[in-house]
């Protein structure tokens, strides 16, 4: 009965337009009042939230958001683009390949798919259009490549999953990197295939390359190396076990400030302060939502909801394969309307463990579905970010992006069904 009250109020409040955080909060409080505080009281809610808030993962999420914002405002995207253009300039698919590579690489810095879509899309999509390339196709391709920013470490989706499931971020990052880079390679291959017929303005591309080449190898590499070093420092520190995820996140903030203020000089102290303020607003809502999501598992324990749900699911889905496929389908459908990770993970993570499914592979796979879920209509956020940049209707972009989404979903599902393909990354 308590679970029915919680779910009912939660869904109704979301439908009325309340934020995820407010919906969660009200859904916690209203059942307590309705049951006369016999099952749990307000102090119980406070204790659950305090327990949930004491996770180092939240610190990592906050710091990566800060460093991503600073790097975005510090114009590191332009330096990364110039580096790839210098080395790929003779290729007829140079500009499209450089655009996709920049989106993927920037994702390794920011950890946020939406930040990548906004920052890289605003810079390179107008350039692709100016060079005569298909605007709808590359709006979709950049949205797809940008979405990998939530899967390729430092992945915000993986950090959120780990906060709720209590799994190790560093190990899951390694699996996420394997899955994310596989998707990236496939997107690059699809770009090459597309450019066999969509060549754009080759003469304009050649002139741009020659202009960049005239600056010389030393100047181009010397300028861009500072942006390129960021993911090397972050991922190198984590994967070599020299740094914890939180330590790597802290170093990324210091590095972003240093490069933006003193190397590129693209930010002053006022700009830096604005980047910090913007980050705080982003982090506050995410952190509160995660705290409620983690506390949700405590609420389930009050009325043994986890056992009831697990029994119901395992009675229908009797094999790990069936459970994994169902998980992907449910999460994919949910992502069409909202980000259901905070609702689903506290329920499915323990069930996956009971099936003996590798928690790192399962978690990275589910995080991947969340990452690319920003591409799916009717409410795919990346579609609406890219639409005004491309000056194309979101549903037009959706038609082009769905094949990319389908291919990446298939790749993620294969890795989840055959964990031996990626467990080597952390064992």
Main attributes of the structure:
cell inner membrane, DctM
Describe the 3D structure.
By secondary structure, the protein is an all-alpha fold. The chain has one domain (40-425). It has 20 helices and no strands. It has helices at 2-15, 20-34, 42-53, 56-73, 76-88, 94-110, 113-130, 135-147, 156-165, 169-194, 202-215, 217-239, 245-263, 269-302, 305-316, 320-334, 341-354, 359-372, 381-390, 394-417. Helix 7 (113-130) runs parallel beside helix 19 (381-390). The chain is globular, with a radius of gyration of 22 Å. 46% of the residues are buried.
Secondary-structure blueprint of this entry?
Elements: H1 2-15, H2 20-34, H3 42-53, H4 56-73, H5 76-88, H6 94-110, H7 113-130, H8 135-147, H9 156-165, H10 169-194, H11 202-215, H12 217-239, H13 245-263, H14 269-302, H15 305-316, H16 320-334, H17 341-354, H18 359-372, H19 381-390, H20 394-417
InterPro entries: DctM, TRAP_DctM
Pfam family, one: DctM
Membrane topology: Multi-pass membrane protein
């Amino acid at each position: 009965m308590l679970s029915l009250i919680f779910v009912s109020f939660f869904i109704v409040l979301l439908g009325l337009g309340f934020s995820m955080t407010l919906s969660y909060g009200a859904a916690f409080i209203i059942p307590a009042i309705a049951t006369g505080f016999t099952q749990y009281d307000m102090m119980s809610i406070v204790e659950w939230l305090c327990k949930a808030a004491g996770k180092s993962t939240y610190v990592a999420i906050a710091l990566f958001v800060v460093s991503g914002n600073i790097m975005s405002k510090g114009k590191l995207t332009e330096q990364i683009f110039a580096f790839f253009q210098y080395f790929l300039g003779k290729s007829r698919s140079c500009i499209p390949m450089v655009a996709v590579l920049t989106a993927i690489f920037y994702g390794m810095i920011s950890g946020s798919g939406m930040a990548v879509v906004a920052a890289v899309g605003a810079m390179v999509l107008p350039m692709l259009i100016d060079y005569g390339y298909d605007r709808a196709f590359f709006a979709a391709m950049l949205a797809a490549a940008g979405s990998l920013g939530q899967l390729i470490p430092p992945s915000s989706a993986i950090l959120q999953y780990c906060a709720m499931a209590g799994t190790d971020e560093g190990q899951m990052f390694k699996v996420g990197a394997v899955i994310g880079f596989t998707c990236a390679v496939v997107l690059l291959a699809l770009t090459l295939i597309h450019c066999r017929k969509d060549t754009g303005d080759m003469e304009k591309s050649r002139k741009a390359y020659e202009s960049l080449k005239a600056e010389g190898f030393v100047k181009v590499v010397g300028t861009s190396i500072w942006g390129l070093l960021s993911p090397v420092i972050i991922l190198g520190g984590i994967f070599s076990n020299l740094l914890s995820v939180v330590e790597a996140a802290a170093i990324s903030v210091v590095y972003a400030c240093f490069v933006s203020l003193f190397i590129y000089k693209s930010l002053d102290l006022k700009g830096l302060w604005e980047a910090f303020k913007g980050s705080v607003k982003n982090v506050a809502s995410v952190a509160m939502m995660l705290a409620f999501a983690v506390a949700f598992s405590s609420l389930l324990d009050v009325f043994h909801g986890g056992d009831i749900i697990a029994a119901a699911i395992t009675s229908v889905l009797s094999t790990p394969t069936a459970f994994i496929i169902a998980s992907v389908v449910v999460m994919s459908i949910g992502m069409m309307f909202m980000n259901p990770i905070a609702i689903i993970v506290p329920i499915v993570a323990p069930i996956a463990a009971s099936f003996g499914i590798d928690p790192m592979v399962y978690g990275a796979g589910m995080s991947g579905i969340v990452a690319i879920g920003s591409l799916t209509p009717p409410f795919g956020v990346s579609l609406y970010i890219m639409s005004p940049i491309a000056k194309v209707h979101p549903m037009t972009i959706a038609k082009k992006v769905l094949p990319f989404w389908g291919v990446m979903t298939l790749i993620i599902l294969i890795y989840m069904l055959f964990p031996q393909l990626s467990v080597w990354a952390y064992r």
